[in-house]
Amino acid sequence: MMDASKHNFDEVEIVLFAPAPAMRRLIREALISVGFRGIRDYLAIEQARGAIITYNPDLLICDLDRDQDDICSIIADIRRGKIGSNPFMVIMLLTCDPQVNAVNFAMQTGVDDIVTMPISVRLLEQRIDKMINKRKRFVATEDYVGPERRAYSSQEEEGANGSNNFQVPNSLRHKATGDESAAAHKDVIENATRLITQHRLAELTTQVSAIATQAKNQAKRLNGDNNPAKTLIKVTRLLDQISSHVDAQGNDNLIILADSMHRVVNVIAETADPAHNLWDILVLSGQAMSAILWDRAGASELIITALDQAMAAIGAEGG
Q: What is the reported pTM?
């Protein structure tokens, strides 16, 4: 059990959504026993949603057994920055009926922890201590933003995998321990949000490169007689997602690369017998985009080569 005397919970803000009076009373009393004072509890999901926006809590606790779909939707919106001003607040769900499908669905929204009721003060202390001292690093994909679900053998191993996961602000830890590095200041949240976009872009460009490589190999096997309609649809959808993210990033090189990739795809779609190197251009452009995102050596050279090849291909087809 954590030593509550080492933490100061006076400034911690909690929003508690628990429609059942017995559960709400139990959790509130347990939180007070741990040392929390700033607890706002709500019966209706819309009231809780409004409180998240108004009070920007450090810890959100919800009863998963009531209004499950609405709760999961709110959590997903929090993680995507659509509700409240801190997408990295600590989120804990409570359930008396831990059905596998319901729990798995809730986990995919980006929740930090799911606790099975009944819960003792000691267990609540332990789970909160974990969120303060051992909170998981975050990962970001096109479909998920939240704690890394993979287990690590040590904190060192987790930190060493920084290219795939990253530390996010933890205002609960900041207020409880005084650790300034965990503070959820506006600029820190903005930086972490930009990092989420980077990770999503990296995933999307990897997918484009993989699909383009597969299409090139298929075209070679068929001696160039290839109708890549389904592949082009997949690539176009991915490029549309990439374009939306690079616009948000505001990086001119990313925007230019995304535009050239779209134009190369148009050339492939309009060419009866697309050359293998057209797919190679998409692979190279994806590599250039990744190099920009992670500030890798040789990024400038990759950009120039990718754009030169793209423009040559577009020009050859009258694009």
A: 0.85
